[in-house]
Amino acid sequence: MTNAGPPPLPLDADGLLDPAAFDALSAGPSYLVFAQLPDARLDLPVWQRHAAQFFAAEVALTRPKRYGASPPQTDAAHLVLTPRGGAPILRSIFLRPRSEDDLRAAEQAEGGGGLALVAKRCPMVVLVHADGGTDAPDAGSLHVAALLASVLLGPLMPPDRKSILGPKSARQELEKRGP
After folding, report:
1. Which helix (H) or strand (E) holds 145?
2. Nearest to 116 by CA among 124, 125, 107, 108
3. Which residues are bridge partners to 96 per DSSP?
4. Against a cut of 0.90, is the pTM above it?
5. What are the tens digits of pLDDT across the range 79-128?
6. Which helix (H) or strand (E) covers residue 124, if one does?
7. 62-95: buried (b, 16+ CB within 10 Å) or exposed (e) per residue?
């Protein structure tokens, strides 16, 4: 069985997702990455430097983004993460404002500890769609989520929302799974 990749995203000429399409497209099993971002703009050059320096990987988007004077509060992209010497990992990512439900999930997963407090300082979240579903998310989705947690300075939660990991713990989990 081959994976054809994520479905196309209906992006406009600037590479931005119509906010009206966000909820339907972002549904499904995903890692939840808390992000210390003011809005949904992707700072690709920062992500690329971070991926090269700390993950020995390259990051790209399948479509470029052009932001106007008013930054988006929601957006989506197909992100390609290519580990050095490895196969490219293509995942859909969705950015939106953090919700109270997100914070409740973080507090329940940790019991109100330090990572839940970090999550409160993150005004945005990034959803990384997970192949393999809620019960058995794939290592590729974890790799993308771990990179984003590291560069966006926030914890992440797996699709089942039963735990919360800091960036370092996410990388350790990734290393345990192997290539």
Report:
1. helix 139-152
2. 107
3. 125
4. yes
5. 999 999 999 999 999 999 999 999 999 999 986 669 999 999 999 999 99
6. strand 124-129
7. beebeeeeeebebbbbbbbbebeeeeebbbbbbb
